[in-house]
Amino acid sequence: MLLVAEPILGAEEKAALAAVIDGGWVTMGDRVQEFEHAFARLHEAEDSIAVNSCTAALHLILHALGIGPGDEVLVPSLTFVATANAVRYVGARPVFVDIESLKVPLVSLNEAETKCNARTKAAIIVHFGGYLAQREAWQAFARRKGLLLIEDAAHAPGLPAAGTFGEAAAFSFYGNKNMTTAEGGAILARNRSLREAIRRARSHGMTSCTRQRLDSRSPDYDVTMLGFNYRMDELRAAIGLVQLKRLLEWNDIRQRLSLCYRQLIAVHCRSVMVPFADPWLSAHHLMPVVLPRGVDRQSVIDRLRHRDIQTTIHYPPVHRLTFYDDLNPASCLPRTEEFARRELTLPLHPRMTPATVEFVVNSLAAALHAEHSVEATA
Q1: Which of 14, 103, 121, 177 is catalytic?
Q2: Along the chain (378 residues), what's the average pLDDT of each consecutive run of 10 residues?
Q3: Range of the domain at 71
Q4: Which of 34, 132, 160, 179 has its CA at a distance of 20 to 30 angstroms from the CA of residue 279?
């Protein structure tokens, strides 16, 4: 099966894990700190904070910024549910905003403007598929409205521009991301005091961690704030240090494969739309396409799977998921809903080659042709 995403893990990661096990210190320690510094350098930042997931990263950012009950946060519905869930974790209300268009499935700045009110305190921008939103436009909007700007950069590691939009950015190292630590995430925040508040909240609000107390030979610590257990461990940090070395190389491969997809789809699948005009600053995490209106997407998925090609959908609209639909059944985001009905995510990862892309596109063309034939005889 050709998978939509496939991590690259090998001998170097195994050796890094073995070194941690042989060293006997597996919880947050020196490797986590080394990983934080390396991730920050890659993004031309002063420092970063490693955590156990991107969800934890978003929660910590919102918590540290003081967002809470009575506040509203603008979020896209075209995202993974964690983006909205993190807002609920701090007691605030996520306000769903439509995408700009099928060609640019990023949160709409114009619609965000209409959703603002006196309770709106922040906006979370999602760099869908790794494609970065328009930084200057969003910064101007946030200044004009007096909003805190937060990036859900789960899809955009390795781009120095990610993490420079506003107060802070959350990154993901889940198993299907451009680099992985199996589970894990990181936070970039330009303000040092905000970073320190997030860093302390990551570990129960404690003034020192276990390794620091060992090194200082003092068992004493204090708790100065409400905190959480969102630490990254040494095993994941060790994998992350290896993965970071190849992240830019892997992103370059993704970019070349994405271009190959665009060129071949333009020739063989002319009825299929590929979002985002090329070039567009991107980490090329996903290869989303929009199928022609009226095509039975599940049938296309089944035909591709018959050729051992996995596909998936990014994403079911969050505002239509049962939990959020029950909270606000009147929500209507027509562009997001149309995109979600027709979107199909094709395989994209560095293990692929141009020949693999050609096989996928030819298979997609055959599936669409078969669909048209069925419609013609119906």
Answers
A1: 177
A2: 97 98 95 98 97 98 98 98 98 98 98 97 98 98 98 98 98 98 97 96 86 75 92 98 98 98 98 92 98 97 98 97 92 96 98 98 97 69
A3: 11-242
A4: 179
